Amino acid sequence: MKLIECPRDAMQGLHDFIPTATKTAYLNALLQVGFDTLDFGSFVSPKAIPQLRDTAEVLAGLDLTNSKTKLLAIVANQRGAETAAQHPEISYLGFPLSVSETFQRRNTNQTTAEALADVAAMHELCERTGKTLVTYLSMGFGNPYGDAWSPEIVTNFTQQLAALGVRIVALSDTVGTSSAATIAPLFSALIPAYPSIEFGAHLHTTPGTWREKVAAAYEAGCRRFDGAIGGFGGCPMAADELTGNMATENLVAFLAEQGVETGLDMAAFGRAQLLSQPIFAGH
After folding, report:
1. What is the separation, in whole angstroms, between the first and last Cα of the chain?
2. What CA–CA distance (Å, rounded) separates 37 from 2?
């Protein structure tokens, strides 16, 4: 079981800039919890994501000496990937490849064909520099634009990623449209069909629908889950304003019910929760 904590996703949409020292202190607290991976920041244009313009400075302030947690940085193009790859502390580069052509253009100013070409180049870069590429299939469960979506389309994207040698694919419910009826069949079909790929679930959800979504993915064989303490963040294009990231505390509770040992230090988890409250208060 791998739990990926995503403070980057929780922070990136906040209007008021979080001071670098505050970000760093929070991330250092998260590094003591025992997550498999920390999605800590992004190397993208500061005009696009001003909240994370200090990612390099934050990285310099992280204390990794007593943490087994690996770092993941999001990138939106080859230039960002090359910048991120220069940092030895970073293990994973994450790239959002959208099943929706409209969202790909809005998110990274590319066509999906151009984005796939970038994935190929980023994967080669990662192989050369000792990193691993994590490809997020954004809008993996549908989109609000009327773009075509079907399990077959998601499978086709996965097939192309497998052909490139991509080893981690996270199906991403970007706007909270997924349900157990869409989650379970996708994971049930893809996991056995592509044994070389580690599939993850990046699910956005309302407070009332999280359990059915986690259960559907888990029962279908998913063993990699993204979350954010408090369920903060999520996509501003979601139809329901209550839609946010999957709350990590809910993930932990669900796994405990299944008898799954997460290996997390729950005292450290509690300290991180306390630190998160003033950062995200009112959001």
Report:
1. 30
2. 8
Contact at 8 Å (CB) between 143 and 136?
no
- Rounded CA gap, 187 and 189, in Å? 5
Length, in residues, of the chain: 283
Model confidence, pTM: 0.95
Q: Which residue is it, tokens 């349900």?
A: 179
- Tell me if 74 sits within 8 A of 108, measured CB to CB: no
- Residue 131 CA to residue 86 CA, distance in Å, equals 10
For residue 132, what are its two tokens?
């691993």
pLDDT in tens, 68-118: 999 999 999 999 999 999 999 999 999 999 999 999 999 999 999 999 999
CB 191 within 8 A of CB 171: no
User: Residues with Cβ < 8 Å from 198, sequence gap 6 or more?
Assistant: 167, 168, 169, 224
Domain ranges of the chain: 2-280
Which fold is adopted by the domain 2-280?
TIM Barrel (3.20.20)
